[in-house]
Amino acid sequence: MTMEVEILMRSVTHITMSNLVNTRTSHLYGVGFFYGQRKLSSLLKNRSADFVLRLLCVAWLVCSPKKKYFFLWYIDINTYIRVLINLKSNIMETIEINLYSFEELNYTAKERALSKFYDINVNHNWWEFIYYDAKELGILIKSFDLDRGKHIEIDIDSCYYCEDVANKIISTHGKTCKTYIISETFLKDREDIEFKYDDELINEEQFDDMISALEEEYTNDIANEYLTMLEKEYEYLTSEEAIIEMICANEYQFTEDGKLF
Length: 261
Hints:
Elements: H1 3-21, H2 26-44, H3 47-63, H4 67-91, H5 107-116, H6 128-136, E1 139-145, E2 151-156, H7 162-172, H8 178-198, H9 204-237, H10 240-249
Antiparallel strand pairs: 1-2
């Protein structure tokens, strides 16, 4: 409590006790209470204190015929106001916190920070790039699952044939990519079947059956390869290396024990 507030409190108390003896100056002391209410509120800047002091003034007018009851009631309010002043003092405390970048943390704090950010790279549609790459080739990924029931479901766009997809993959994917190797093998096998049909080694029905079986196998192989891509992407994004990279890129700050600020 500041010295100015303490003096004001004593003055208001003195006005109250004096008025218990001299009732003819009650209007003067009533003015004193309103002045005290305004002055104390400006010092505290606290709505709760302002409300209590207004009640005090109303009580003065209501209880003036029975000064002794008012005096006892005033003592309780006086105590409450002092509590409000102490609360206000506590609110004004300043706390300094040292903040650190991830690299500045010790080993234990880093481990704690990493555990909180384990899904920072996969809490959104992290698979969008792979979906987009497949769609550009005429492959529509409808669903996938990387858990125990690992599977993927794809369709070849109705605007394309498997042969078109294979040619697009060869023109866009590198020679070391598994999709490139699978597509190259598919085109070669398809070409061999066409040669057999042209040489009349197989009839049309056999040709259709062989091409259908080959395309089904190719679609399954490409689907499995895209499932592998998704799995590898997820593993990388949830790796410690990728998480640290994202934390540093966003310039996150931490407390000394590794909590995000």
